[in-house]
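User: Is it possible to get a 3D structure for a protein together with its bound compound? The compound here is flavin-adenine dinucleotide. I've pasted both below.
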Amino acid sequence: MTAADVAIVGTGPNGLAAGVTMARAGLRVELYEAAGTIGGGLRSEALFDEGVVHDVCSAVHPMAAASPFFREFDLAARGVELLHPEISYAHPLDGGRAGLAHRDLAATCAGLGPDGDRWRRLMEPLLARSRGLVDLILSDQRSIPRDVVAALRLGTRMLSHGTRVGAGGFVTEEAPALLTGVAAHGLGKLPSLGSAAVAMLLGHLAHGTGWPLPRGGSARIADALAEDITAHSGAFRTGHRVTDLRELSGARAVLLDTSAKGLLELAGDRLPRRYARALERFRYGPAAAKVDFLLSEPIPWANPGVGRAGTVHLGGTREEMCRQETANARGVPSEEPFVLLVEPAVTDPGRARSGKWPVWAYAHVPNGDDRDPLRLVRSHIERYAPGFGDTVLEQRSITGVDYERYNPNYVGGDIGSGAMTLRQSIARPTARLDPYSTPLPGVFLCSAATPPGPSVHGMSGYLAARSALRRRFGVRTTPSLAPGARPEAAARSGGG
Ligand SMILES: Cc1cc2nc3c(=O)[nH]c(=O)nc-3n(C[C@H](O)[C@H](O)[C@H](O)COP(=O)(O)OP(=O)(O)OC[C@H]3O[C@@H](n4cnc5c(N)ncnc54)[C@H](O)[C@@H]3O)c2cc1C
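Assistant: Yes, that's possible. Here is the predicted structure of the complex:
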């Protein structure tokens, strides 16, 4: 039983975004978190050394820099500094070669030689409609696109880069590897239309609002959201795993920042059979298995440009990545899986100490994989940075299965909260008109298991909160989230 108007289960970025929105509407909000600290995918910890922080999950924030929720919330005004690397991401290849995606589009094109012009023609039109493209993809996937030109530009590029026939027309190995490395963020089969949409969104942002890291670690973002909730009378209960929705009776709205499986568990047999079956059929995607390192010095990349990048993709050529990622999505483990790597101190020098250099890296592995990723990740880095092993002071690994123990939302280690197939990016978690509402009155799903899906953008929480405000409290005007804006007074008495 709770005395709050709104109970929120889970404090990942979406639970927190929902909390901010509901509290700003003048409602009493209570947030429950199973772990000892808030943040979900936004936690940072000193893993090896008191003075050196590692991000436990998310590290790089192109979505937080661009999303409509964070645009309005305004992280900068709340003291969260998003720092930009000179090179947004890099993709090393054998023989000391590398594709480098500078924040500056012209510098990128110059470095891509004969493919430079093609890269410019791919990205420039998207950059010109960036706001429309971001708002289209980071939406509930049900509204008519406001920027039809952006939608058309996205659609044509998805067709030419998301199928086997259209490999994009590049002539070198660097440019297609660069683009496919971004598509691999979709954690699924390659090529595919869904992963091509991811490549276009993240790919153009690398030259626009950027792929920044928050100064001091990802937890800074969670702290800023939590401060706003507390300032508007919200309360947190950490170390409390909710096991049954009946615990929250008394709240007029319950928002679940949980997986689809979590919703099934919490609701027990109260869900209508048809809806429960649809949730059971919801498919989970590949897992992440992570390794954190403490090094004595920066990674000795064969190509020095890679060492100036905020994010590094290790996956070899486009063909290698298509083979590995497709096999991985089918549950076949690879000896050389795709690896995402970040040396945070390249962008935020304060993250390193003398002789202590943090590295964050995770591999794509099949769902439910319990292999220790240490050997695989180390040998993959060594391929492009001979001598890497000599710099390792400390290391810690987390298997795909461990990730679900760490956070129940990562089912089988799936950090995307459900496979991001084209179908499941819309029918997320089911094909309801309002994907945030459930058949249980007053119960809403607000996690990355709803559109627009994974990443730290806060949009699932924000859109779910707006749905709850409308349906449960009769509030049709979205409260202002801007720093210093006064909360609405009317919500508590309205609606039904
Ligand atoms: C290794 C890794 C790297 C990533 N890298 C990036 C990145 O660089 N950039 C990026 O944008 N995204 C990244 N992501 C993805 C991003 O972290 C997630 O998409 C995002 O955190 C999802 O937000 P959420 O609020 O839906 O859920 P989560 O962040 O998963 O939070 C859910 C919270 O709910 C709690 N919870 C669940 N069930 C219950 C219950 N019954 N009772 C109480 N509490 C409960 C959990 O403990 C958890 O704290 C990464 C994820 C991982 C794991």
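The chain has 18 helices and 16 strands. Residues 459-473 form the longest helix (15 residues).
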